Amino acid sequence: MTKLSFLDLVNVVEGETSADAIRRVGPLAAHAEAHGYHRYWIAEHHGMEGVAAAATSLIIAEAGRATSRMRIGSGGIMLPNHSPLVIAEQFGTLDALFPGRVDLGLGRAPGADSRVARALRRDFMTEAEEFPRNVVELRAHFTGDPDLGVLAVPGRGADIEMWILGSSLFGAQLAAALGMPYAFASHFAPDQLDEALMIYRRDFRPSARLREPYAAAALSAVAADTTAEAEYIASSMMQNFVALRTGRPGKLPPPVENYVASLPPSASAMLGHVLQCSAFGSVEDVARGIARFIARTQVDEVIVHSPAFDPDARLKSVALIADAFRAVEAGQTTAPA
User: Fold this and answer.
1) Which one of 8, 36, 42, 238 has the largest count of C-beta atoms within 10 Å of its C-beta?
2) Within 10 Å of residue 17's Cβ, how many Cβ atoms?
3) Which residues form the Luciferase-like domain (predicted)?
C-alpha cells in the first residue's frame, strides 16, 4: 500500500525570522503524525534567507521530540558538505534519542552556492565526485566495519534507514547499485522522474537492508475548502519558485489573487513546467492529483511538499491532503483517464 509522507523546508515567511519558522516545526510534525503521515523529512540548505534548516539534525530532533510514532529524518543531508563520520555521529545520536524512527536521506547537491562552499571549507567538485564512496563509508560507520579504523560513537549499530535522493539519473543508478531506497525530487525538478524510476527498478540489486526496490517521489500540494482558495494559498509557493529561478530568492511571500495570470508568458511557462508534479485545490481536486501521480509513477510513497504563508492555512492543508490521500487509498478516487 502506498504511504504518505511530508517534506518540510522550514520556510521563513516575510515579516518573520528563522526562529519563528523553527518554532513551528514541532507543532507541524505533531499535526502530521496525528493525520497519519508516515515520515517527516527536513531538507538541508545553507545561506538562504527563506529556509531555516541549515542545522538539519537539530531540526529533526525537534520533530522527533514532538512526535512518538512517525518516522523522522533528512530529505536530505547534502553529504558533500560533511564528513561521513560526523553524519554517522549526528544520526547515531538521533537514533539514541528516537530509536527505530530515524531516516538518513543523502543528496549529492551542495544545497548552497560557491560563497557558502568557501565558508564551509569544502571543495564541492571533489566531494561530489566522492559521493558514492562516502555513502559506502557512512553505511560502514553504522555497521561498525573494523576496516575504517575509527568508531562512530554514537553511530555504530544505529538502526538508521538510509536513502539516496536525487533529481537526475545519477542518484537512481547509485541507489540501485547499493540496494537502497530512492526518492526523487519531482516537486521542483520533474524532468527525469519517469526515466529515473525506470532505471532504479530495472537495475536494483538486493542488499542486506532491502530485498526489493522501494521508491518515493515528491509532490507539491495545497488543499483548501475550494479550488480558488487553494490556488490563492499556493501562489506563495509559486512566487517563491519564480523568484528562485530568476535569481531573487527570499522569504516566502504572502499570497496574491490571480498570480499566474499576472505573469509574462515566459515566467508562466517556466512555472507550469516546474509544477508538473503538483495538486492544488479542494480535497477532491487533490485526491485526483494524487491518484494521477501514483498511477504515473507507481511509487511506494508520496512525499508532499506543502508550504503556505499562513500557518493555520498550512495546518488545514496538511489535514485535507491526508483526507484526499485516504480517499485514493480507499478507492473513492481514481486517476482521470
Assistant:
1) 42
2) 12
3) 13-292
